[in-house]
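call fold(seq) -> tokens
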Amino acid sequence: MVSEHERLNLVIKTSSIASGVPAKKSGSRSVLGDAVFRVLARSSSAILVLVILGILAELVRASGMSIGKFGPGFLTSGAWNPVTQEFGALSSIYGTIASTVIAMLIAVPLSLMLALFLVELASPFFSKIVGGAIELLAAIPSIIYGMWGLFVFAPYMADHIQPAIQKVAGRLPLFQGPPMGIGILTAGIILALMVLPFITAVMRDVFQMAPAVAKESAYGLGSTTVEVARSVTVPYGMQGLIGACFLGLGRAIGETMAVTFVIGNNRSISMSLFDVGNSIASTLANEFSEASEPMYLSALMELGLVLFGITMVIQIIAQFWLKRMERQTGRR
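ret:
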């Protein structure tokens, strides 16, 4: 049997003979380099897995008191009273999911349109400028988004946007209540602005990898730019598009500072998006330093465990969809 290393040397020698260039002799140095690289790669992967398992184990250990007292009811209870030592995660889970859903509903279509515009319509010079500006948004710290949202965007929401929405759809339960500016809707919009650069950048890079031959063939058959984007560019980059969406989803669901500034930090659960609420991350940021009682601290750690679990579920779903897309592409 010929080993993989010997087969590689044979391929190198054969290609060098065909090209007339003498092949370099591979000695023990190359074998040692391969072995070192293999050990480093496997060690890095193992360390990453150990770190994740260590975080999970510490969260489970620190939240053991809360898990033992409240059990599964912690996820369905809306109580949160440090005085009576009664805690539940329902309001935090609701605020987290509601603000994240709003962010994704706004950010994904805008990111898709921006990426297609930069790839299919904009000139290279203009695309480079706009692309750089979008990527610059990703470098802005989250606390800056939060301060801007609280002092600039929230008053504008209260004075103009929310009253306008109520005039059009005020009868719907989603848009009832006083226009305070802060709340779940404002938090979702701020999150959308934060995740938009990440999703757009990934989509743009994936769409740029679409084969030029396929696009030119579609244009040659009389297709318009919209038809080429719909039939060639988007299907080719569908896996990257899904990955970009889940990347933005993971970024939005764990955001702390920006949401803390504008969501209101109230434990009420309301159908109205104008009402204030809270998220898991904002609760941890606001109350962790005040947790003096062991049960209080354990409940906060269990909230962190819930957020960890939600993030892991998102990653599993993302991997499932990507694998499914790969299988569908392979069948074609």
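The CA atoms of residues 6 and 12 lie 10 Å apart.
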